[in-house]
Design brief:
29% strand, nine-stranded mixed sheet, 26% helix, 7 helices, globular, single chain
């Protein structure tokens, strides 16, 4: 029996998947850039048996580069993946059927980032909103407020281009941000405050406190947009006021390096490409550091200051 396949466009890539994903399909491309296939737990048994805990790098997910250049990624007790050495194929195994939404989040985030790197792209950890046809990127570590700030823009009628992972492509001499999946991850309290009209379940993944909110078509931008500026969100702190400061070229470069999405692959080619990308992006676009008290009451003021700084 032939397995049904589904075609999608994401981050400027054509994806073909045996796994139905929760966003609109598109016209198939031949050949696709990346293919997702279903795998059984037994098909990964030899890989697991050959690896000890000492072989797998730690963190909330574990990974190991295998002898043939492919990468094994495991979210213990939830899902496992093998990304081919050229990044064009991803075999997926879902251990816990109750965690389908989080499975897709892992697949389209950290797992796909390994494929993107192997395909020559350099992903950033960022959320992007669209203002007057241009992309405003918020960069920072997990928990720094990127998604909350982006969601506050949605509440005021703006659209999100991507949340969590950003791919930038130069088109006709202009740096464009490419669209991600129509969803956003927020802490429950923030979700209720900035998106009160949406219903959501409590986190399906006990290792992650955030919830996943699907975005409606009018809340999402599905085409590439030229980037206008980067805003680096500092670690949440008790600062008494809002401040936005443009960074020097050196500070901008270091901030861009710190915002890389995947720090696990550190080959010479990858590091060279990462440095070259950070240098090009910061030479072409302003980078500002933004500090503000992380309270819901501050979001309107922060959003207003950002809009005042980027709109003509």
């Amino acid at each position: 029996m032939t397995t049904a396949v589904h075609d999608y466009s994401l981050y400027g890539l054509s994806l073909r998947s045996e796994i139905p994903l929760t966003f609109p399909e598109c016209r198939p491309a031949a050949p696709p850039d990346v293919t997702f296939t279903l795998a059984t737990s037994e098909s990964f048994a030899d890989i697991r048996a050959a690896l000890s805990d000492a072989d797998m790098s730690g963190g909330w997910y574990r990974h190991r580069v295998l002898a043939d250049g492919s990468v094994f990624v495991s979210v213990p007790d939830y899902c496992d993946f093998v990304i081919s050495s050229d990044g064009r194929a991803v075999a997926c195994c879902l251990e816990d059927p109750a965690s389908v939404e989080w499975f897709q989040t892992y697949l389209l985030g950290i797992v796909l980032s390994f494929a993107l790197l192997k395909l020559g792209h350099e992903p950033l950890h960022a959320a992007v909103v669209v203002v007057e046809g241009k992309g405003i990127a918020f960069l920072g570590d997990s928990g720094y407020g990127k998604s909350t700030l982006a969601a506050s823009f949605v509440r005021e009628g703006y659209r999100i281009l991507t949340d969590d992972l950003l791919i930038i492509r130069e088109i006709d001499g202009v740096l464009y941000a490419l669209p991600g999946p129509p969803r956003i991850k927020l802490f429950p309290q923030m979700a209720r405050s900035v998106q009160p009209q949406k219903r959501f379940d409590e986190p399906a993944d006990p290792d992650n406190e955030k919830v996943i909110l699907p975005l409606e078509r009018h809340e999402m931008h599905f085409a590439p947009v030229p980037l206008d500026a980067f805003f680096i969100l500092d670690e949440p702190q008790g600062t008494a006021r809002l401040s936005i400061v443009r960074l020097s070229p050196r500070e901008s470069f270091l901030a861009m390096l710190a915002a890389t999405f995947n720090t696990r692959l550190r080959t010479h080619d990858r590091l060279h490409r990462q440095f070259a990308a950070a240098n090009k992006w910061t030479a072409r676009l302003p980078v500002r550091r933004i500090r503000y008290p992380r309270t819901l009451a501050m979001l309107d003021e922060v959003r207003g200051a950002i809009l005042a700084g980027v709109q003509p």
